[in-house]
Amino acid sequence: MTRKVFFSFHYSRDVRRIVQVRNSWVVRPEGEAQPFYDKAEFEEAKKSAGGIEKWIEQQLKGTSVTVILFGAETYDRKWVRHEIKRSYELKKGMLAIDIHRIKDPQKGTDVQGKNPLDYWSIEKDGRKVYFSEIYKTYDWVNDDGYNNLSSWIEKAAKAAGR
Question: Taking the model in full, what pTM does it have?
Answer without folding.
Answer: 0.87
